[in-house]
């Protein structure tokens, strides 16, 4: 089997799907989450019998999933049980850039600390609040929220370990206090956390190398290498220079055609995405935006978009009738998943 087949299997895009949203988050460890629909579609593509409402229940009622700033300073959806150690490992490098961005918004260290304390008090007194509601509370207290100030204050409170995006309030994702929303957990020593990071990354992304891991996690290469070295007895060193878990099940055959969403994890897990996107990269990736695309035989064949309740598939070249029909069936399934059908 090719590296592509192996990675598609690790990603739950080939082979047996997961049966619930939490299992997908546990396999991938962290799913980029700044686009709520994209994160939900990542779960859809890797599971069976899960709809968007079920994901909202995991976020709101079961508290088994959450979204917060982690790897690379980007919002990620994770299983709640993985939050504490992953937060402790990936957020320390983010504090300097956070202070810089707040200063650019005219908020110095002391005003930033006061604003974060106010966010903490409001959530403690009122329970989960949306970004808009928190912005109103801060404005009333005289805290500047114009431009990107509010986002960076929430970012600071999140990387300080005080808040996460927990429940849904209507269609809005609300912030909650970590202390109120999640059970207390014991700190994980850094060396054990690096080992767990390497192991869990490979479960959802293997085979890969140290640079792939470092880029995905947003950590220095030395940390990626330390994590891999800590689990060296669990690894298979391959002739192609990649490593994978010894206990990896065999790769499955390539998946049927399907539609993948914005910020799809398949494009974000390794240093290169050329094998998947080929000549389509400029169409799918613009700056920091990753658009939805159609996958056929493990490779991008074009994009898709929603126009109201209609889903338009826009292949870059000719598709055979069987593949075109399969994508149309998946389009109907995607619309049902989102409640548009």
Could you please describe the fold and organization of this structure?
This protein is α+β, with helices and mostly antiparallel strands. Helix content is 45%, strand content 17%. β11 (293-296) and β12 (299-307) form a beta hairpin. The radius of gyration is 21 Å and the shape is globular. The model has no long low-confidence stretch (mean pLDDT 96).
Structure keywords:
single chain; 341 residues; alpha+beta; four-stranded antiparallel β-sheet; three-stranded antiparallel β-sheet; 13 strands
Q: Report the span from N to C terminus.
A: 37 Å
Instruction: Profile the largest sheet.
Output: 4 strands, antiparallel
Mean pLDDT: 96
Uncertain ranges: none
- In spatial order, strands of the major sheet run 8-11-12-13
Report the structural category. alpha+beta
Helix content: 40-55%
Strand content: 15-25%
How many helices does DSSP assign?
Answer: 16
Radius of gyration: 21 Å
Gross morphology is: globular
User: What's the β-strand tally?
Assistant: 13
């Amino acid at each position: 089997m090719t590296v592509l087949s192996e990675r598609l299997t690790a990603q739950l895009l080939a082979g047996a799907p997961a049966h619930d949203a939490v299992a997908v988050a546990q396999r991938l460890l962290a799913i980029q989450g700044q686009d709520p629909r994209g994160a939900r579609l990542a779960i859809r593509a890797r599971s069976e019998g899960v709809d968007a409402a079920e994901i909202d229940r995991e976020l709101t009622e079961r508290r088994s999933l959450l979204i917060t700033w982690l790897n690379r300073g980007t919002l990620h959806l994770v299983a709640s049980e993985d939050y504490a150690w992953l937060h402790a490992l990936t957020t320390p490098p983010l504090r300097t850039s956070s202070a810089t961005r707040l200063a650019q918004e005219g908020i110095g260290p002391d005003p930033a600390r006061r604003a974060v304390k106010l966010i903490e008090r409001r959530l403690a007194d009122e329970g989960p609040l949306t970004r808009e509601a928190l912005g109103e509370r801060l404005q009333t207290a005289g805290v500047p929220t114009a431009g990107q100030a509010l986002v960076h204050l929430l970012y600071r409170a999140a990387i300080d370990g005080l808040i996460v995006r927990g429940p849904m309030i209507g269609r809005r994702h609300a912030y909650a206090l970590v202390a109120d929303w999640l059970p207390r957990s014991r700190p994980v020593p850094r060396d054990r956390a690096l080992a767990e990071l390497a192991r869990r990354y490979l479960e959802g992304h293997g085979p890969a190398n140290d640079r792939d891991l470092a880029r995905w996690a947003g950590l220095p290469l030395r940390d990626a290498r330390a994590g891999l070295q800590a689990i060296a007895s669990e690894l298979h060193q391959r002739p192609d220079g990649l490593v994978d878990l010894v206990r990896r099940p065999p790769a499955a055959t390539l998946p049927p055609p399907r539609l993948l969403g914005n910020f799809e994890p398949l494009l974000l897990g390794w240093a290169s995405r050329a094998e998947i996107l080929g000549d389509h990269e400029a169409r799918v990736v613009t700056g920091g935006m990753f658009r939805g695309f159609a996958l056929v035989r493990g490779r991008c064949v074009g994009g898709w978009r929603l126009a109201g309740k209609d889903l338009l598939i826009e292949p870059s070249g000719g598709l055979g009738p069987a593949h075109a029909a399969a994508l149309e069936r998946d389009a109907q399934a995607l619309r049902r998943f989102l409640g548009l059908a």
